Amino acid sequence: MARAGLTVDRLVAAAADLADEAGFENVSLSALARHFGVKDASLYSHVRNLNDLRTRLALHAGGELIDRIAAAVAGRAGKDALAAFAGAYRAYALDHPGRYAATQIRIDQALIADSPAMRRTAEITYGMLRAYGLDEPDLTDAVRLLRSTFHGYCALESAGGFGAARDVQTSWDKAVDALHLALTHWPREKRNDD
After folding, report:
1. Which end of the chain is more exposed for a tag (fewer CB within 10 A), N or C?
2. CA–CA separation, 79 vs 180, rounded Å?
3. Predicted confidence (pLDDT) per residue in 32-86, tens digit
4. Which residues contact 103 (CB under 8 A, 6 or more apart)?
5. C-alpha to C-alpha distance for 104 and 190, rounded to whole angstroms
6. Contact predicate 94/154, CB 8 Å
7. Which of 165, 169, 166 is nearest to 86 (CA)?
8. Do 63 and 117 meet the contact criterion of CB atoms below 8 Å apart?
């Protein structure tokens, strides 16, 4: 493949595919250079280093994930929105394991603030949770509960960690039901003006 066709977007798209095929930890500049039939040095005019590439991949995957979630929750509220959000999250994590792994890396907060996809993630997530009557600091706590529950479940499921005969989808549905109850009966933080 000709070097002239290389762009940052093509590199990130190829890195995303590689992450899903070989695992996020195996995304490297050398592997991408081989994919495009160029020398490693050719990639440095498009990305600074491996960390830059992986950060771009994380932002790209985060954008894909929130696009799926936004489509799923559109027009929904309360438990319906929560179930749609959770289902879209889980489907992306299982369909795109390498890309999903990229969304879990720590990214510089300045880059997150400059990312339209990350701002959209916050807007959609917080918007869904406001339907439960939550405000800060409870919103942040609720986001952390959802993220850790969804991530933990998806990580265990993708690793084959659920060995009991109980249907995994049924357990997922019960977890979403439990989250809905927790959000509905959230122990609100007492404010000084209360």
Report:
1. C
2. 6
3. 999 999 998 889 989 999 999 999 999 999 999 999 999 999 999 999 999 999 9
4. 58, 61, 62, 65
5. 31
6. yes
7. 169
8. yes
Render pLDDT for 104-133 as a digit per residue (tens, 0 to 9).
Answer: 999 888 877 788 888 899 999 999 999 999
Q: Residues 61, 103: contact at Cβ < 8 Å?
A: yes
Q: Which amino acid is at 98?
A: G
Those residues with Cβ within 8 angstroms of residue 140's Cβ, 6 or more apart along the chain or in another chain = none
Pair of tokens at residue 183:
């959000």
Write a three-state SS string for 54-107: HHHHHHHHHHHHHHHHHHHHCCCCHHHHHHHHHHHHHHHHHHCHHHHHHCCCCC
Which tokens belong to 28?
């490297």
- E strand spans, 44-85: none
The C-alpha R_g of the chain, in whole angstroms, comes to 19
* Distance, CA of 60 to CA of 67 (rounded, Å): 11
Q: For residues 120 and 69, give the distance between their C-alpha atoms in angstroms, rounded to a whole number.
A: 11
